[in-house]
Amino acid sequence: MSPAIPGFTLSILRQNTVVQAGKPLLISGRLSAFGIGLPLATIRVFVEGPSYDPSVRHFDTSTSLTGDYTTNILADKDGKYIVYAQAFPLPGIPLGPAFPEPPIPLPSFAESPRPPVAVGRPVPGGVSAETPEGLKTIGAPPASPIEFRPIVTVAPSISIPAPAAFPSFPALAPQPQIVFPVAPPRPETPEIQVLEPLAIAAALTAAIDNVSIVPPVIKPGQSVTGLLNWRNTGPEIATLDVQYYLVSNLGARFGPLQVDDNVRAASQQTFSSPLHFDTDGIPAGEYALLVEVTDETGVTTITSRRFPNALTIQAPEVPEVIPEVALPEVALPELPVPTVPTVPTWPTSPTRDMLSSASHNLPAQVTQGDEVSGILTLGTQAPPMPTLEAPSLAFPTPSYTVRLVVKARNQGTQQIVADKVMDLTPGATLSLPFSLDTSKPGLTHLGLNVTFNAEAIGQQGAWLDVGTFDLAPINILPRVEAVAPPLEPAGPTAEIVALVAPSSVEILKTLNIRVVWTSSVPSHVSAILLMPPGYNINVSFASSTLTPASTMLDSGLLSSHEAALSMPIDFRNELGRNNLIVEVVANGQTIAERQQPVEVLLRE
Length: 604
Prior knowledge:
With about 600 residues, the chain is mostly beta strands. It has four domains: about 10-145, Immunoglobulin-like; about 205-315, Immunoglobulin-like; about 350-385 and about 400-475, Sandwich (Immunoglobulin-like); about 495-600, Immunoglobulin-like, CATH 2.60.40.770. It has one helix and 38 strands.
């Protein structure tokens, strides 16, 4: 923004508010000082835009003797632009072929308003613009009152009275007295039509609450995502624009990097606007995020807020330059050409050695007629692959589409209790829920069959067999209606009401666990993290302090206890899927237990 000098004004008028790309648009205006046109000044008209690829072009001209100026501008891309003019005190003088444009040695002393211009193929009500997001309709910006209302000026009337007569001179012969005609009548001042004042809409106001950027530290050229919360604090529904800029510590402003056009915002309603923009061409450093809420023309700023240290762009690592060392010439003997080993590849279909183990979590004995549901767990592993030193020879882990079928055999009959198609990635664990029919008593044998679709590798036929597993059998006991034995004193009871823990954690970080439980006796909770593949070893654990027994509340419910456990993840912990087991312990005895899978990741 140029410094404003009192008394100096610079207007700008657009021939039209829309124009087609590549075609000239006439811009005119007037530079005045205290209402009088200022001649022989340099006017530079700037064209800033479009919003999705901002750049600035300028077109120079000079004011006439009356202070008026005209020039044509060009825009080569579709979109929304902003035009404005600045006045400089001296006219530009070209210095020859080496300097085709006139230099502007002094700062500007007046600046015009910044009206918008829509560029694209004209359509009713606006233009159709080709943008990177596709064809977009942009409404025609409104014209200012001075662009469509004639300016009415009235000059004051001037009357010059004539003298009654010239004086006579005695030395001369008598002359007739000369009488000048009476002054002409005073012209009537034309009647000026006073325009009715325009209705003024309610003032636009807005508030910017907060913003979150993920991730806050990026590398040059990476995309930025986040969420902005803002509100229209005006009394009415308003159509607003939101513009986003990055500002460096030195004050350099980049943007707008994103523009949310024509957001129809209800009064006092909070809007969550997603952020997504690229940082191509922005140098490394710490940046503040500047958010501006403007009117629907994008010209008048309603409110703005600057969020300091919102984003850090890390400088790229510069490889260390190793000075060249002159080596003595040594005659090398001829060596045989080594045989290039064949680069191994993953098989096109899964193999049996990719399947490590299969198990279920059902009890060994159930009662006839009970509803029994469990989860089958299939462990997988990657086959041995050669270790190559060259980092470019990497083997991305493939994914195979397999079919898991669980069958139950009891007294000569067989039934399918689970059948599902899943994606198998070597090294991951597959989980399949199933239900068991317990209508027939006796020993029930469970088996798992894993097959692969032959059409995935271009073969015609059914599913190819990959492997079969015999699971632990389940004995279905016949239901016996017996007389209930005398009631014995019930042992201690407990229940884990809630277990909250993240699904993944990194090595050398802390796994935060929240446990809510009830217990009929004094107890405490402990947590361990069992490592694969056997899930019987742990190196990470946490425990709470002893709490009193739960009491019965007036509502008929037991009071609960709550503990927050912090479990450090040891560097000896195995990566991949681990089992988090939380127990309620009383007098050294586990009276309640709950488990949850947690993925242990390598710290970046």
